[in-house]
Amino acid sequence: MTDLDQLNQKLESLKEAGRRVEQQMSGLGEMKEQLGGIEVRTASDDRSITVVAGPGGVTDIQLNQDALRRSPSQLSGAIMTTLREAVAEAARQQADVVQEFLPDSDVRERVLRTQQEMQDPTSTSTRTAPPPVVDDLDDEMPDSFLDGGRDR
């Protein structure tokens, strides 16, 4: 194989790689469009509260007259329950879209596992506690005239 043949072969490989990147980029645009179109509308059990959620979070909360007949604590509890359900469903739908475009990822499984852990605090969690905070700033920071001239 001549040098010219090798160069042509490399050029064709680069062109093919470019076509694959273009396909992936167009897929990402479609994924972004689908994600932007997600809107979940969830109602409370008695239909007195409606929460609308999407990729950016909660976009609307609607209360009817029946909701306003509740005590403040009942109302806030019902709003929070409905809000959590709407946000969780929106997250699941978003994960489904991402999973469709990135089939080798485990995004849907991770979202479902996280939601399960949040709903059931007694479930075994794979999360670990954050590392302890260590205050060694004195060792890393230069002496200051504000500290009364300590050890110079």
Automatic annotation (TrEMBL):
Matching SUPFAM superfamilies: YbaB-like
A Pfam family it matches: YbaB_DNA_bd
GO MF entries: DNA binding
InterPro entries (UniProt xref): YbaB-like_sf, YbaB/EbfC
Superkingdom: Bacteria
Annotated segments matching region Disordered: 110-152
Protein name: YbaB/EbfC family nucleoid-associated protein
